[in-house]
Structure formats: C-alpha cells, structure tokens
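for the writeup, i need someone to sanity check this before i put it in the appendix. the sequnce is what the collaborator sent (i think, or maybe the updated version? ugh). structure was predicted straight from it, no edits. if anything looks off just tell me and ill rerun, i have time this weekend
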Amino acid sequence: MKKDRFYNILFPIWFFLFIPSTWLFLITFLGNAAIDSLVLALGCKMNHKSFVSAWKKSFPGIFAFGYLADFIGAAILLILSTVLSDPFPYAMQFNPFSNFAGFLLVALIVATAGALIYFFNLKISFRKLDWSLSEKRKAALVLAVLTAPYLFLFPSILLYR
C-alpha cells in the first residue's frame, strides 16, 4: 500500500503572518507592538525626548505603517517568486541561503521594506511630534533598521522537515 504525502510548497510560511485569522498573526501583532514600542523608546532616549508623549502621538502610525511596509515586501517576494525562473522561487520562499543571488534579492527586499518604514515614519508617523528634522531622522532610522522584516531571511524549509 502506497502512502501519498501532500506538502504545501507553494506558500511561504512567513506570509501567514498577515492573515488575521491565524495564531501567528496574533503573536506577531502583539510582538510588533512591543518591539515598536521598545524601539521608539530607544529613539526617544537617543533624542532626550518624552516617550509617553511621543508614543501617544506617533505609535498608531508607526505600527500601521510598519505592517504596511512588511506586507508590501511580502507581496513583492510573492509576486517575484511566481514570475522568476529557478532557482529564485525556491530561494525566495524556502531557503534564501540556497542561492547567493536569491539571498541578495531577498535581502534587497528586506532593505526596501526597511526604507519604506523609514520614509513612512519620517514623513507621516512623526508629523505630530515637535522634534527637529535630525531627531526625527534618527528615530526613523533606528525604527527602520531594527524593525525591518528580517523574518523573510528565515529558511522556512526547516519547518517542512
């Protein structure tokens, strides 16, 4: 008797982070809120500013635009993995470390999402703050570097074994 096994090989595990009905979404929702708050606290400390005031004025934007930037990066990865030929789809969906060019492409998309986080925070989330432009840039850079979607680089093939 032959046993057939079916594996979900078309959908990278990190994309489930954006589907509200999954438990991963709840974990990442709370984790992102905590991490964004901690990184904002670091940015406030670097600029010698009040965290509570800055959090009240900018946190909803930081949180929402961080998710938007991550989603844009994930959508780009998903689209590129369907239109590019081998070995890119495997590298982009399962193991970025399997191919150097695939790794560079995924790392570029992580950097792009980080740049979007920087831009969104600088231009939109920090609008209500009475900080100088250099203080806003510093805080936006800290948020971009520390909250970029590095999970895209996780070799999800490890979860399928």
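Confidence is low (pLDDT under 50) at residues 4-10. The chain is about 65% helix and 0% strand.
thx in advance!!
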